[in-house]
């Protein structure tokens, strides 16, 4: 069995429903007066038909914590060691399952001790592993992760599984069963050939698709063309579009991907930025420079906020110089400012964020609530070693403000 540790409680926080200048005081007052009822009241039921199908990477993570990252040819000792499941899809689907969604995972492991441990851990978290392929030979994917206590960073060395998954590993009947009644399909762009077959069928069935665009990968462009939602890392938008700035790159992505409803770029401790396409074009709205608009939103969040918050623009024509114009809303979400002594490990923080976004989409949360919720879930994860140990369950009182 894989090991787990416990996580200390975090402060509660909620999304913005008031002007930014009023939010913090009124929220603290409300939480102070109702904390006892929140602690005792059970959360509401998960979303009806909240079924997420994920296809992508799973692995065993070997996490070694060190006082500082070693120099070439150094010999150092770890201060702690943890072995647990990992991989983008495995982490995101575990997060979604703990939050209450029915999570189905398509991936591949080998029939070795590590593969058996992965299946056991996923099943213990409520992830449906009946669609996973188990190879009789080869090796299960695994990752060495060095967690640097000094810089609060992690370095990953990944070894892919052998033999790799191919579309013929998954029968058509299994794929259709996995997609049955699914609310959303998620792809991390690993296993890209199999993922594309599933994504095309999901699109045909009008099942919304979320793509995790971590970096340029083989098969990514084909999956992006089918995506309704994209969550990407800080460097990806500019790398993919060759735009000179992140805001301009987001406009470019919406212009190049006509099916896309929103794109979120995660920025670590700086929070996230989201561009949402307007449901219909407003010919009368004036054009607004997206670079200047983002700066305006940054001033609205304030520099002293410690809890995740969100501010947004009105629906308008957002212009990126040299790229074009798209009608939509710009959102800026902040991250929790975790005290240095409480920040343990950022491994899998992006996966936790995506797992929360999957839940939020199924629960029909508005962006103003979704972004702080996802930031809260990611912050919980960062207070424990490994990608999954700190993932909160839906009964966690820290999530109560979002699950009402």
TrEMBL record:
Positions of the Carbohydrate kinase PfkB domain: 58-279, 335-392
Pfam families named among the record's database cross-references: PfkB
Keyword Zinc: no
Coiled coil: none
CDD domains for the chain: ribokinase_group_B
PROSITE patterns, sorted: PFKB_KINASES_2
Domain of life (superkingdom): Eukaryota
InterPro entries: Carboh/pur_kinase_PfkB_CS, Ketohexokinase-related, PfkB_dom, Ribo/fructo_kinase, Ribokinase-like
Protein family (similarity comment): Belongs to the carbohydrate kinase PfkB family.
Protein's name according to its UniProt entry: Carbohydrate kinase PfkB domain-containing protein
């Amino acid at each position: 069995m894989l090991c787990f540790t416990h996580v200390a409680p975090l402060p509660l926080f909620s999304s913005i429903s008031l002007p930014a200048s009023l939010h913090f005081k009124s929220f603290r007052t409300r939480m102070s007066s109702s904390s006892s009822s929140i602690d005792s009241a059970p959360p509401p039921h998960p979303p009806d038909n909240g079924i997420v199908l994920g296809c992508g990477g799973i692995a065993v993570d070997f996490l070694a914590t060190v006082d500082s990252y070693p120099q070439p040819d150094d010999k150092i000792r770890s201060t702690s060691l943890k072995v647990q499941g990992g991989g983008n899809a495995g982490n995101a689907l575990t997060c979604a399952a703990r939050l209450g969604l029915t999570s189905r995972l398509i991936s591949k492991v080998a029939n070795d001790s590590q593969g058996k441990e992965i299946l056991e851990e996923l099943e213990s978290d409520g992830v449906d592993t009946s669609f996973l392929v188990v190879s009789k030979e080869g090796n299960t994917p695994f990752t060495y992760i060095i967690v640097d206590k000094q810089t609060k960073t992690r370095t990953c060395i990944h070894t892919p599984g052998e033999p790799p998954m191919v579309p013929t590993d998954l029968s058509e009947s299994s794929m259709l069963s996995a997609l049955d009644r699914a609310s959303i399909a998620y792809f991390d762009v690993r296993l890209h050939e199999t993922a594309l077959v599933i994504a095309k069928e999901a699109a045909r069935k009008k099942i919304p698709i979320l793509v995790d665009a971590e970096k340029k990968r083989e098969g990514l462009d084909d999956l992006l063309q089918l995506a309704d939602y994209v969550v990407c890392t800080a460097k990806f938008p500019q790398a993919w579009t060759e735009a000179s700035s992140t805001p301009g790159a987001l406009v470019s992505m919406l212009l190049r991907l006509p099916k896309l409803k929103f794109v979120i770029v995660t920025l670590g401790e700086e929070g996230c930025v989201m561009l949402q396409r307007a449901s219909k074009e407003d010919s009368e709205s004036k054009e607004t420079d997206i670079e200047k608009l983002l700066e305006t939103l940054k001033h609205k969040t304030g520099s002293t906020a410690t809890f995740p918050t969100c501010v947004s623009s009105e629906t308008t024509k957002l212009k990126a110089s040299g790229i074009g114009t798209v009608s939509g809303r710009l959102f800026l979400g902040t991250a929790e400012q975790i005290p240095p002594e409480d920040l343990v490990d950022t491994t899998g923080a992006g996966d936790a964020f995506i797992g929360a976004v999957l839940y939020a989409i199924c629960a029909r949360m508005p962006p103003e609530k979704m972004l702080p919720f996802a930031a809260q879930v990611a912050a919980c994860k960062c207070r424990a070693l490994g990608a999954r140990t700190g993932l909160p369950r839906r009964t966690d009182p820290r999530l109560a403000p979002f699950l009402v």
